Amino acid sequence: MQMIETTLGKLPVEQLGQINAHDHVIMDGGYTVVKTPDFKLDSVEKAIEELTYWKNAGGGAVVDAQPFGCGRNASKLIQVSQATQIPIIVSTGFQSREFYLPDHWQYKYDEETIASLLYAECAEGVDLNGYESPIVKRSDVKAGFIKVAADYQLVSPYTKTHIRAIGLIYQKIAMPILVHTDMGTAADELADAFEQSKIPLNHVMLCHMDRNPDFYVHRRLAERGVFLQYDSPGRIKYQPENLVVKLMRDMFDAGLGDHILLGGDMARRSYWKSYGGGPGFDYLLAKFTPRLRDEGFTEDELHTIWHRNPARWLASGQPQ
C-alpha cells in the first residue's frame, strides 16, 4: 500500500479523498508578503475556517505549495491540519524568484549543497525554522514533494541548478515534483531539463498550465507523460472559465484526461471568505465541479480528476 507523507502522519493514498493539487494554507512572512500584504496568510484561525469550507464541500487532502524561505510555517500547517483533520502535504524546494531577495542563499550554492538540504527535508523532516536560521529544528513531518519554479518563457540557470539537484536526490529517493510555470510557458524546456537529469516525467506536475489553454501544447506535454495542473477557475482575471472547460473536454476526448489535476491556488487574503474575500477555498468543489457536471463530464471523469490523478502523482515518487 502506497503511503503519503502528510501533516497527520503517513496515510494510505486511498484515504486522501478529493485532493486539492495546489494551494496555499499558510504564508507567514517573507519578502513577497512584505511587498504585497495581500499574500499574508498568517492566521491559523482563518486557515481553519477556510479549510472547513473546503471540507464541508467534500474536500480532502491539500497540497500546500509554499516552500521554505518564503513564508512556509510547518508548525502552523500542523496546527491547522490537526484542528480540521485535513491532511496537508508539505513542500520543500523553491518558489519563483520574486519571493526572495536577490542575495538569497539559493543563488550561492551548487546543486550538491542544495540537494543535501532538500534531501534532509524529504528523508528526515522539514525544518520548522524554514532554513532561515543557523538553527535547524526538524519536524516529524517530512516533505511530500519538491517544488521548483521557472520564469516567463525561460528556464533560468538557477532553475536548472535546482533540477540538477533533484536529479542527485533521485539517486537516493524519488519524490513527486511540482513546478511553477509562469503563465504555462517554457513547459517543453522544463520537461527537457528533467529528462536530462534522469527524472521520470510522470513524476512531474506543471502548474498554472491552463493560463496557456492551447490544446496542442497540452496534448504534446501529456503525451510526454507530465501531469498538467489547472487553477484559473474562480479567478476570472486570468480568463473565462469556458476556456478551461473546453480544454479539459478536449483532453478527455483525446484520451489524455488522466493527466489533469485541479488546484485552487488561493494564495491571497482577497481570495479567502474567512478574510472577507472570495471565491474561497471551496469554489472548485462547490461551484466549478457542478458546472463540469452540467457541461457533460461524467462521474468517472470527475473521479479521475479529483482522486485518481492527484493520487497517482503523489504516489509516483513517494518512498515506501
Task: Describe this entry's structure for a reader.
Helix 4 links the parallel strand 6 and strand 7 (145-149). It is globular, with a radius of gyration of 18 Å. It contains 10 helices and 11 strands. The protein is of the alpha/beta class. It has helices spanning 31-35, 44-56, 74-84, 111-123, 157-169, 187-196, 215-224, 241-253, 283-294, 299-317; strands spanning 3-6, 9-12, 18-23, 59-64, 88-89, 91-93, 145-149, 177-180, 204-207, 227-230, 260-262. The protein has one domain (9-313): TIM Barrel (Alpha-Beta Barrel), CATH 3.20.20.
Compose a concise summary of this entry:
The protein is of the alpha/beta class and 320 residues long.
Number of domains: 1
> What is the CATH domain class?
Alpha Beta
Low-confidence stretches: none
Percent of residues in beta strands: 5-15%
For the biggest β-sheet, the strand order reads 6-7-8-9-10-11
Tell me the overall shape. globular
**Number of helical elements:** 10
Helix residue percentage: 25-40%
> Helices and strands, in N-to-C order?
EEEHHEHEEHEHEHEHEHEHH
Q: How does the helix and strand content classify structurally?
A: alpha/beta
Distance between the termini: 9 Å
Which architecture would the CATH scheme give at its second level? Answer: Alpha-Beta Barrel
Report on the biggest sheet. Answer: 6 strands, parallel
| Rg | 18 Å
Counting copies of identical and different chains, the oligomeric state is single chain
Q: Determine the mean pLDDT.
A: 96
